[in-house]
Amino acid sequence: MLPWHRRLRLRSRLQAVVLVFAVANYRHGYNIAVNTNYLDDRVAADLQSIDWLAVRDLPGILPTQQRRSQETTIALLEAAALMLRERSLDEFSIEDLCKRVGVTIGAFYGRFEGKDAFFSALVSLAASRALAAVHAAVADEENLGTGLEQACRRVVEVAVDVVRRNVGVVRAASQYESVYPERWGTIRATGSAMVGLAMPLLLARMGRGRIAAKERSIGFAFQMMFGTLINAVLHKPKLVSLDEPEMVDRLALAMFLQLQHEARANRPAR
What distances in angstroms separate CA 266 from CA 62, 208, 214, one per listed residue? Predict the structure, then answer.
C-alpha cells in the first residue's frame, strides 16, 4: 500500500476544488501526458496530477483547443517552477525556459500574454495545487479516529510539502512583493484558505466550547508555521533547513503544543 501522503496526492487529482482567486477544476479521466525528461523525479510525479482543466483559466494564459498546445503550456509552467528553484526571477529568461522544454520563443508567446502574465499564472497554479493538497488531506477518511497530535502532524506535513514543491515561486513572489504586490497577495490568500480548510479538522479535536479562542490559537499556530517556512525559503537557515525532516517534526510539535494548551483550558480545575 502507498504511504498516506502519496495516496493524498493521487486523490487530489479526482477532487474538484473551487478557489476564490483561481479556478482549479480537477477531474479524473483527462490527464495530459507531457515529456518529463527534463524534470527531477519529484517534479515529474507532481506533473501527473495537473490537467488542462486546472490550467486553462489561470490569468495570462491564451486559449487553445489543440491538445498538443495544451501539453506545451503545462510543460512550460512545470519547467519554470523547477528553474525557479535554481535561480532568481531576474536570472530567469524565456529563452532558457524554451530551450529546456524544447520549444521556440514564438511558441511561448503563442500561449502566454508575456513574462509577467506567465509568472502570475505560475503563482496562481501553485496556489490552486496547494489548496487541492490541503483539501484532500483534511477530507481523507483516514482522519476518522485520529487525535489532535496526529491531525496537527498531517496538516504540517502537507503545508511543508507544498512549500518545498513551490519554493522558487514562493521566493520570487516574496522578493518582488513591492513591485508585484498582487502575486504575494495570492500567496497570502492561499495561506488564509489553508487555515480555513484545516480549521474544522483541528477544532473537532479540541473539545467543545470557547470556539473563538480556539480558532485564534489555530490561526496563530499557522502564523508561526508560515513564518518559519517563509524564513527558511528566503534565508536558508543553517540550524533546520526547509528540506530536513526535522522541520516537519518541530513544526508539528509546536502546533500540537499550542492547540493542546488551548484545548486544556476547557477543563475545570481540580
Answer: 54, 8, 10
Global confidence as pTM: 0.73
Same domain, residue pair 103 and 140: no
Q: In which band, very low, low, confident or very high, does the pLDDT at 268 lie, cut at 50, 70 and 90? A: low
For residue 224, pLDDT over 90 is answered with: yes
**163 domain residue, yes or no:** yes
Helix (H) or strand (E) holding 187: helix 181-203
**Mean pLDDT to the nearest integer, 103-116:** 86
Report yes or no: 247 and 232 within 8 Å, Cβ to Cβ. yes
Across the chain, the runs of DSSP E, i.e. the strands, are 16-18, 23-25
Q: What is the pLDDT of residue 220?
A: 96
Which of the residue ranges 108-122, 135-149, 236-250 has the most confident prediction, judged by mean pLDDT? Answer: 236-250
Instruction: Read off the DSSP letter of residue 113.
Output: S
Nearest CA-CA partner of 202 in 252, 248, 249, 246: 252
Which amino acid is it at 56?
R
Instruction: Judge if 206 and 233 occupy the same domain.
Output: yes
Q: Find the domain containing 96 and state its range.
A: 4-118
Q: For residue 172, what is the domain's CATH number?
A: 1.10.357
Round to whole Å and give the CA distance between 130 and 128. 5
Backbone angles phi, psi at 21, to 5 degrees: -120, -5
Integer Cα distance of 225 and 231 in angstroms: 10
Residue 177 pLDDT > 80, yes or no? no
Q: Indicate the residue among 84, 118, 152 that finishes a domain.
A: 118
Residue at 91 is within a domain: yes
112 and 126 belong to one structural domain? no
- Structure-block grid coordinates of residue 73: 503550456
